[in-house]
Each structure stands twice: as structure tokens, then as C-alpha cells.
């Protein structure tokens, strides 16, 4: 639109600002906005496009940022009440990179407290609603990011992913989300949960949005364009009966694989080698709890009431575990990375349900297995993309995850774009059209 002159970054900014004003009071995705500064950024972008000199293909794109990633002049509290008044004095490098590419930063987005959880039911900053159904979780911990993109309050958003926190909201909210390979995108300037497992990744409305975003975020070349599905070797990961799939998720995944089988791709069963769901889930949580306790120790000492009792309990539990147990948890990270290499000698990509369930009511307890399909990529350092895969019979989004070899973000995103072309893009949720 910008290239053709059909729209300008300024008119698009005003449209998104109007949508935020209309819908955010109900959705509660954005927490703090910088609309005046963003309007100036959009006007500068419009001048660049008019002069035929945009900074990048995302110049003028309105973007939201998860509240644990530094945006100069806005709070960087990670959804933790104890940091409510802490203002970022500088942009995190990933945000600075986006601004250098011309992105228009709208504000910060709600999240699960400390990024340790997947419902975004935040005691200090409020509950973000799933745009597909009021009273249902958008997932987490990047719930505000997934909800805002799915509802059309921003063109894209940044989240962070420790055991699935970009991809789970993408699944529950019906958008796309990518967890980069370990080391591709800087986590400097992030109020981290676990520096060992954290990744910063983008959410978008369609798979084609992600390569230019990731290229700007990382500074690495990420060629866009869908892959050719005929001839691709795709491993199909179902959990082999060890993960309890909600019936709608199981039938939706089977239907998606049936469509892929007709494209000329070769589909074969595949399970991540040496990956044990309960054991490795607990290892990931322990690493997160141990590192969160270290990160927040100083603030905990002076403001314990700024953390919820549950978050304090989790951090204390992790810190108190025997050293041998901690060592065993940390040993799983290189072990799973090494084991994953063998699988990708036999398949090009792995597909799996993104989450074992669709979005659920805030009145329900969060299932323990939410991250069983997503955590493997965080441990093994693999790129992974969640794409829309249709809707359940009761109208909630379904999602399929594409996981690629370490270092192959561009190829994984290309495969995700090709699969999205087969399965279809998500519409805007009812009430947000």
C-alpha cells in the first residue's frame, strides 16, 4: 500500500490508533501507549515513502512491544507489580533495530507476571481477554501481544518465548508467531525470566509478515517467500499418546496433515529424540525458577509484596532445590540440542499441534501440558513457527507448529508460509472486523 500510494504510514497509524481506542478498553492488551511519538514516526515514514527512500519493507509498520522488552520512556516491568514504576532509559537492541528499519512503536503490551505462566491473567496489570471469546485466556506469557495482533490493534508485535510464550498465544488467538533459533535475536534489554531459555520473537497476522520483521530484529538476512512443498520430508509429531490432546485439536491436526499429504510433501511419523514430556517440562520450569530468583533477588528483598504469592513460591522452590537436581535440569539443554540433530538428518521439518488444547476459560485451571509441544524448540535452540490451522466446532482457533533445524529460520518461515497457503489465513475475530 505504501509503495503504491494507496495508503501512507500516517493514515495507517491513525487507523490503528482508532482501533486501539475502540477495542483496547475491552481487550486490555496495550498497557502504556506512546501515540504522539508514534504519530511523528509515522509522519517521517510517510515522507520517506513519498520520496522513494523507505528504510526497509517494514518502514511505517505499527508494532507493539511486550512489557518485558525495553522501550525508552515506557515502563519495563515484565508484568510484575514491584517494577511498576521502572521506566526504560533506552530501547532494547531489538526495539532499536526495529526503529532503525522505520517501524512505528505504539506502546507496550500486557503479559503474564514475570513471563512465568501462560494465561495473562495478571493480578497487578489486569486480565487480557482472548479476542475470539470474552472470559477466555489469550495464552501467555505474551498474551497481550497475541491478542493485539489477532484483533488488529497493531500490524505486528514482539513477544518472548521461554517454553512457548510466543507460540501459545499465537495458537489461542489465531495469529502467527515465530520463536527464532537460539542466538539469532538479542535478549539484551529484556527483563528476563530465563537467560538460558529466553528468545524474543515476532507475532504477525500472516506468515509473510515474519521474515521482514525477523530480518530487522536480528540484522541477519531472512529471505521471504514460500517453500515448495512437493518433495519436502515432513515429520509428524503427535505426542504418541503421551500428550492428552483435546479432541478438537487432534481432529484439526489430522485434517491439516491430510491436506499437506496432498501437496506432494512426504509425511512420516516423528518424535523428538530423547524428549520426555513431564521430565523436561519440569526441567524447564526449574531453570526458569532458579534464574528468575537470581534476577529478582534484590527487588524481592525490598518489595516482596510487589510479587504475587505464587510467583514468590515458584522462585523460592527453584532456588531451594538441591544442586544436583539443578545440574540435571541444565544438562537437558545441550542433550536435547544434540539429539535434535539426528532427527533433522531424516526429515526437513517437523509439524505438530502448537498446544494440546484451544483457548480455555479463565475459570479453569491452566493445563499442565500447555507447553509440551513448544518447549522442545526452546531447549534444542530450534526455530519454530505457529500458523493458523482453522477453527474448532465451537469457533476457537486451531494452530499448527512448524519446527526446523537449528540456524534455519528463513527455511522454517518459508515452510510455514507454504503450509499457511494450504491451510488458509485467520480472519479477524468476530467483533473486531
Descriptive account of the structure:
The protein is an alpha/beta fold and 433 residues long. It has 12 helices and 13 strands. α3 links the parallel β2 (62-66) and β3 (104-109). α4 packs parallel to α5. The relative contact order is 0.14.
The helical percent reads 25-40%
What's the number of helices?
12
* Strand arrangement in the largest pleated sheet: 1-3-2-6-8-7-12-13-11-9-10
Q: Low-confidence stretches at least 5 residues in length (pLDDT < 50)?
A: none
β-strand amount: 5-15%
Give a brief description.
By secondary structure, the protein is an alpha/beta fold. The chain has 12 helices and 13 strands. β2 (62-66), α3 and β3 (104-109) form a beta-alpha-beta unit.
Write the layout of secondary structure elements.
Layout: H1 9-27, E1 30-33, H2 35-50, E2 62-66, H3 93-100, E3 104-109, E4 121-122, E5 126-127, H4 143-150, E6 156-161, H5 167-173, E7 176-179, E8 199-204, H6 210-218, E9 233-236, H7 247-261, E10 266-269, H8 277-302, H9 309-320, H10 323-343, E11 349-353, H11 375-380, E12 384-391, E13 397-403, H12 409-423
Parallel strand pairs: 2-3, 2-6, 9-10, 9-11
Antiparallel strand pairs: 1-3, 4-5, 6-8, 7-8, 7-12, 11-13, 12-13
Helix pairs in contact: 1-2, 3-6, 4-5, 8-9, 8-10
Amino acid at each position: 500500500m505504501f509503495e503504491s500510494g494507496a495508503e501512507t504510514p500516517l493514515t495507517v497509524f491513525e487507523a490503528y490508533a482508532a482501533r486501539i481506542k475502540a477495542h483496547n478498553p475491552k481487550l486490555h492488551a496495550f498497557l502504556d501507549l506512546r501515540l504522539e511519538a508514534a504519530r511523528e514516526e509515522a509522519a517521517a515514514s510517510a515522507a520517506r515513502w513519498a520520496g522513494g527512500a523507505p528504510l526497509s519493507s517494514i518502514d511505517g509498520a505499527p508494532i507493539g512491544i511486550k512489557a518485558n522488552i525495553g522501550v525508552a520512556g515506557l515502563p519495563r516491568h515484565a508484568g510484575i507489580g514491584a517494577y511498576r514504576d521502572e521506566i526504560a532509559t533506552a530501547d532494547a537492541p531489538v526495539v532499536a533495530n526495529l526503529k532503525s528499519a522505520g517501524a512505528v512503536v505504539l506502546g507496550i503490551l500486557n503479559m503474564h507476571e514475570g513471563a512465568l505462566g501462560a494465561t495473562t491473567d495478571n493480578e497487578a496489570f489486569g486480565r487480557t481477554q482472548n479476542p475470539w471469546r470474552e472470559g477466555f485466556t489469550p495464552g501467555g506469557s505474551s498474551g497481550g501481544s497475541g491478542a493485539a495482533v489477532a484483533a488488529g490493534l497493531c500490524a505486528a508485535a514482539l513477544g518472548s518465548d521461554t517454553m512457548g510464550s510466543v507460540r501459545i498465544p499465537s495458537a489461542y488467538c489465531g495469529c502467527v508467531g515465530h520463536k527464532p533459533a537460539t542466538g539469532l535475536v538479542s535478549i539484551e534489554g529484556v527483563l528476563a525470566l530465563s537467560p538460558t531459555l529466553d528468545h524474543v520473537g515476532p507475532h504477525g497476522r500472516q506468515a509473510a509478515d515474519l521474515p521482514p520483521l525477523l530480518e530487522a530484529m536480528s540484522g541477519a538476512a531472512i529471505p521471504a517467500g514460500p517453500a515448495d512443498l512437493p518433495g519436502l520430508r515432513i515429520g509428524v509429531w503427535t505426542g504418541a499418546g503421551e500428550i492428552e490432546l483435546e479432541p478438537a485439536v487432534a481432529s484439526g491436526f489430522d485434517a491439516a496433515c491430510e491436506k499437506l499429504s496432498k501437496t506432494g510433501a512426504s509425511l512420516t511419523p516423528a518424535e523428538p529424540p530423547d524428549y520426555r514430556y513431564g521430565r523436561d517440562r519440569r526441567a524447564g520450569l526449574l531453570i526458569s525458577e532458579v534464574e528468575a530468583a537470581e534476577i529478582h533477588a534484590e527487588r524481592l528483598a525490598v518489595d516482596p509484596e510487589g510479587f504475587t504469592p505464587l510467583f514468590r513460591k515458584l522462585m523460592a522452590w527453584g532456588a531451594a532445590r538441591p544442586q544436583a537436581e539443578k545440574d540435571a535440569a541444565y544438562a537437558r539443554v545441550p542433550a536435547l540440542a544434540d539429539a535434535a540433530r539426528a532427527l533433522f538428518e531424516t526429515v526437513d521439518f517437523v509439524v505438530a499441534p502448537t498446544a494440546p488444547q484451544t483457548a480455555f476459560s479463565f475459570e479453569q485451571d491452566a493445563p499442565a501440558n500447555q507447553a509440551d509441544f513448544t518447549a522442545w524448540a526452546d531447549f534444542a535452540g530450534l526455530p519454530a513457527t505457529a500458523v493458523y490451522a482453522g477453527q474448532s466446532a465451537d469457533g476457537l482457533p486451531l494452530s499448527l507448529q512448524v519446527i526446523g533445524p537449528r540456524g534455519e529460520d528463513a527455511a522454517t518461515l518459508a515452510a510455514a508460509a507454504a503450509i499457511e497457503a494450504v491451510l488458509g489465513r485467520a480472519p479477524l475475530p468476530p467483533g473486531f472486523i
